[in-house]
Amino acid sequence: MALLPAANPTLLDFALTLGTDDKVTRVIELLAQTNEVLDDMVSIEGNLITGHRTTIRTGYPAPTWRKLYGGVQPTKSTVTQITESCGMLENYSEIDKALADLNNNSAAFMLSENRAILEGFNQEIVQSLFYASEDNEPEAFTGFAPRFNTSVAANAENAQNVLKAGGTGADNTSVWLVVWGENTVHSFYPKGSKGGFVMDNKGQVTVENVDGAGGRMEAYRTHYRWDYGLAVRDWRYVVRICNIDLSDLTKTGSTGADLIDLMTQALELVQALGAGRAAFYANRTIKSFLRRQIVNKVAQSTLSMDQVAGKHVMTFDGVPVRRCDGLVNNEALVP
Prior knowledge:
seven-stranded mixed sheet; alpha+beta; about 30% strand; about 20% helix; five-stranded mixed sheet; disordered N terminus
């Protein structure tokens, strides 16, 4: 029996509404095992076949102090419409028919053999979520970093949500705070699709030139496709801590970026943590330093290990800190 959609649904929440026997559900569950972003990221159906048109509020109406018998001028908020693009990520897997037949060609065996394909999707999606740019790759979508790429207020309004950690070298990374929600920040999939993820079993095919010398092989082919996009409806719910110089970090915080202070600032910059599902994202290097700082005096009041959705998760002031290996250690310095 299908479940009712959850509030602020993740891709896995949507998959579960398809029923536990659906093949797409099993694939998305495998993806979520190695992609912690999927635990938080709200995913909704877009309103276009190839994207999502959304309204962003750019100004709020000011009320008027009225005196008796005085008038009030009506006002209205200002908004702008933008259309976010949806990228199409595809791949094929081909498994030797003889090998599959030895294992009774079971769906479980085929899926286990395709784990490398699924992990490739995971890595590409997560890295694109933060770094993809339609200016450089028109067929993709635009991720977080190109949207939050300056700390100069004169260049962009969202610059106030870009905190610089003082790094100057070539080994810099970022920590992100995102509050996922249908009215804040969310991913989306094309209108009318099953969460944007498609797995199509093509059956038995003859693979040409399998050995590079004109040889052929009978194989079972599976086609995977993930249509995916990102919509930032309100930039006030995203904070980037950038220019974190990895070579300067210490487990005590005595040198290099003061991660505790910067993450505290990030929490205060967010308009309202309760507006959605909040989470920090850091790569394994940064998370390792945070984990070691748990035992140091500077971190005792803010870092802890909690149970979140049945998982042992590091939290910072109650906000989960997720590991995201898509965050690289050689980011360009943010000016």
